[in-house]
Design brief:
The chain has 246 residues and is of the alpha/beta class. The chain has one domain: 3-Layer(aba) Sandwich (Rossmann fold), CATH 3.40.50.720. Helices cover 44% and strands 14% of the residues. It has ten helices and seven strands. Strands 3-2-1-4-5-6-7 form a seven-stranded parallel β-sheet, with helices on both faces. Strand 1, helix 1 and strand 2 form a beta-alpha-beta unit. The longest helix has 21 residues. The protein starts with 8 loop residues before the first strand and ends with a helix.
């Protein structure tokens, strides 16, 4: 991969672990100034240390719980990014809250609220709160990520599955409303089964060593964040067979 993200400012949510952590390190390796957003300071510190130890551009830690965020916090975040970095070129939504799978009649309402507050409301609020920065950039990309079952919504995936499915509609609505802004794009990647902490929670019976490693699917995340994908918006990119065909 070429340094196609050189000098880009990119915010990654869920940057403390799993795919979010890996993407943060990858984008920094590609030359980007990365903002690490998450609710666990210790985990964000680990990602920060990894990036710095490799000599990549020094990241910025943004401790924020998307489940509880408000417009005032997002306004302050927008001002901080504008003042310290001068702008924003991208957001990758990797933060996701999980709840146990099961029949609709067995799922607690409070768990639904928590899942939707993080996975849907948090993603919407962050994108909305930083929209002016993205719109003012010469090139900007917003990438949503979901568990691939959110595309088909099979039985027993309940509130978690529906929250993922709703993120698809959120991406499409952003893309349709701003389709004439050719410098700004909204797309979604469904990585498929990969060895991450989320996969362990959704499929506890699987053998971790037999799962695809997330390192094998990084290239599409770089492409859709880079200027190479400029003008392409509203796409759903499924990576279920990527490792086998790449």
């Amino acid at each position: 991969m070429a340094l196609s993200l050189n000098k880009k400012n990119i915010l990654v949510t869920g940057a403390g672990s799993g795919l979010g952590q890996l993407l943060a390190v990858t984008y920094a390796k590609e030359g980007a100034q990365v903002l690490l957003l998450g609710r666990n300071q210790d985990k964000l510190n680990q990602t920060y240390d990894t990036i710095v130890s490799h000599g990549y551009p020094t990241p910025i830690i943004v401790p924020l719980d998307l489940q509880k965020t408000n417009e005032s916090q997002l306004h302050e975040l927008s001002l901080m990014i504008s003042n310290e970095l001068g702008g924003l070129n991208g957001i990758v939504h990797c933060a996701s809250r999980f709840m146990p799978l099961g029949s609709l009649s067995s799922q607690p309402v409070e768990q639904w609220k928590e899942v939707f507050n993080c996975n849907v409301m948090g993603a919407f609020a962050l994108t909305k709160g930083l929209f002016s920065l993205l719109d003012n950039a010469s090139d900007a990309s917003v990438l949503f990520t979901i568990e691939h079952h959110g595309l088909t919504l099979p039985p027993f995936w309940g509130g978690f599955g529906l929250s993922q499915h709703t993120v698809v509609g959120l991406m499409q609505l952003f893309a349709r409303e701003y389709q004439n802004r050719h410098h700004l794009r909204f797309n979604l990647i469904a990585p498929g089964p990969i060895a991450t902490p989320m996969r362990i929670r959704t499929h506890p019976g699987e053998i971790h060593q037999h799962q695809r490693m997330p390192e094998n699917i990084l290239e599409p995340f770089v492409y859709w964040m880079s200027e190479e994908s400029k003008g392409k918006t509203g796409n759903i990119i499924e990576l279920s067979n990527y490792a086998e065909t790449a």
